[in-house]
Amino acid sequence: MRKYIKRLFALLAALCLAGSLAACGSPKSYTADIFAMDTVMKLTAYGPSAETAVNAAAKEINRLEAQLSNTIATSEISQLNAGSGGTVSEETASLLSAALTYAQMTDGAFDMTIAPVVAAWGITTDNPQVPTQAEIDALLPLVGSGHVSLSGTAVTLDVGCSVDLGGIAKGYASDRIAAVFKENGVTSGVISLGGNVYACGMKSKKEGWRVAIQDPQNSAGYAALVTLSDQFAVTSGGYQRYFTGEDGTVYQHIIDPATGYPVQGDLTSVTIIGTNGTMCDAYSTALYVMGLDKATAYWRSHSDDFDMVLITADGRVLYTPGLADNLESVEGSSYAYAAIG
Ligand code: ADP
Ligand code: MG
Questions:
Q1: Is 270's C-beta closer than 6 angstroms to any atom of ligand 1?
Q2: Minimum mean pLDDT range among 6-15, 149-158, 219-228
Q3: pLDDT at position 243
Q4: Cα(56) to centroid(ligand 1), Å
Q5: Domain parsing of the chain, residue ranges
Q6: Which secondary structure element, helix H or strand E, spans residue 277, and what is its range?
C-alpha cells in the first residue's frame, strides 16, 4: 500500500513539476513537490534562480536521505548500525555529534539510540505491532547516549545498539536547503518537509510567510498561523504517524526513551520556532516527550534560543511571548489561546 502511494505520489509530483513554473508576471517562482524521507515535501523559491535553486535543493534532500536513512541499507547510518560502528563522513559525524548534544541537553528526551525500540514497534513500517513488556524491558538497556562513542569520524556502538536520526534529519535537511537557497541567490521562498518549514526571507516587501500549524484534531484544519521570516518552524505531534492496536489504542511514532512506549502525554503538538532547523527538529521531538510542564520549564531556561507553540490535549494553544505579534488564532476555533508567562 505504502509503495503504491509512493508511486502514485511520484507520478503526481512529476506532473506538478512540469506545470509549476509561473507562466508570466513577476516575481518568477518555481515549486517542486517531492516525496522523500517518507514525507510529502514542497519546495518553493522566488526570483530569477528559483528553478535552479529548487532543483538543487531537491537533489540535496535525496543525497541526505541516501546518507542518513535507517531504511536504505546502503546509507551510512544503516551501515553503522549493521556493523556496530565504523567510519562515517564528516557531515554524518557532525550530525551524530549534534544529536548527542541535544540528548544531553534534553536529559535524554531526544535520544537517537531509541532505534531498537522504534524498530520493535515498527510504527513507520508496513507492519506495526505492540511489543510485549518483556521485549521492551530487554531493549531499554540499549538506549542511552553512553552507548555511542564518537571520535572524529570514527563511531563505535555498543553491542545491540543502533541509532535513528528520524527525529532530526529533516531539520538538518532544512538547514542545508537554507544554505542551497543562499548559494543560489534566493532571497524569498518557503519549504515544507512534512512538519519542518523553512521561511526564507519575506513573502513580499511588507509580508512575512504565514505558516499554518495543523490542528491535531482535524487533519484538514489548522490551529494557528505564525508569520515567519528567515526562521524554521518544526512541529512534532502524535497525529502525524500512528497505528491503531487491536483494542483500539492509538500508538504514535514518538517514543518516550524512559519507558519505551509511545508518548501519551498532555500535549498533542509542539512547534519550535528558531533560526537553526536541526535544533528546532530535535527540540520539537524532545519537548513533545517532556509534556507541558517540563517543556515550559525547558523553554524558560533556553528562551534566547527558540519560541514555541504548544497544543494541549485539553484544548489550549499556548505560545511564548516572542510570538505575540506573529501568531494568529483561528476564528471560531474551539481552542483557548494564551501566552506563556
Ligand atoms: P517527524 O519525523 O514525523 O517529523 P519527529 O521529528 O518528532 O517527527 O521525529 C520522530 C521520529 O524520530 C520517529 O519516527 C523515530 O524515527 C524517531 N524517534 C522517536 N522517538 C524519538 C525520541 N524520543 N528521540 C529521538 N528520536 C525519536
Ligand atoms: Mg524532531
A1: no
A2: 6-15
A3: 86
A4: 26
A5: 79-167
A6: helix 277-290
pLDDT, one tens digit per residue, over 101-120 is: 999 999 999 999 999 999 99
d(CA 305, CA 317): 20
Name the residue with the closest Cα to ligand 1, atom 10.
167
Q: For position 26, what pLDDT does the model report?
A: 55
Please enumerate, as own/partner, the contacts of 298-301 that have beta carbons within 8 Å and a separation of 24 or more: 298/106, 299/340
Residue 307: pLDDT above 90? yes
- Superfamily name and number for 79-167: ApbE-like superfamily (1.10.3980.10)
0.85 exceeded by pTM: yes
User: Hey, whose CA ends up nearest to atom 26 of ligand 1?
Assistant: 167
Q: Which helix (H) or strand (E) holds 269?
A: strand 267-274
Total residue length of the chain = 341
Over residues 185-210, the pLDDT tens digits come to 999 999 999 999 999 999 999 999 99
279 CB within 6 A, ligand 1 = no
β-strands 336-339, 316-319 pairing: parallel
Any residues with CB less than 8 A from the CB of 218 and at least 6 apart, and which?
none
| Bridge partners for 312 per DSSP | 267
Which residue puts its alpha carbon closest to atom 12 of ligand 1?
Answer: 167
Q: Furthest-apart CA pair in the chain: how many Å?
A: 63
DSSP states along 176-234: HHHHHHHHTT--EEEEEESSEEEEEE-SSSS--EEEEEEETTEEEEEEEEEEESSEEEE
